[in-house]
Write a structure and sequence with these properties.
Largest sheet: none
Distance between the termini: 60 Å
Helix content: 55-70%
Radius of gyration: 22 Å
Strand content: under 5%
Shape: extended
Amino acid sequence: MIAFTGFLGIVLASTVFTREVEVRQYKLIPFWSWREVVIHHDMELLQEILLNCILLEFQEDYPDVLNGDNLVDILKAAKAKKEKNKRQ
């Protein structure tokens, strides 16, 4: 327990107390991901965008069904159904 407390003290001291105060800068770019898809033809990013849209639509149609605990099960069932439909 003493070693763990010492470890936490070192981590806290090295990450919090040694930081210098800076002005945080960021740049908000609307639809940056779509721009990457169009300009750089990033098909993986396009797939991610479309899957996010599908998940949002699913959440609207079936609220409180999808959560972190059952996501894997839902995706497995969807994949199995897709493969079954391919075989038919």
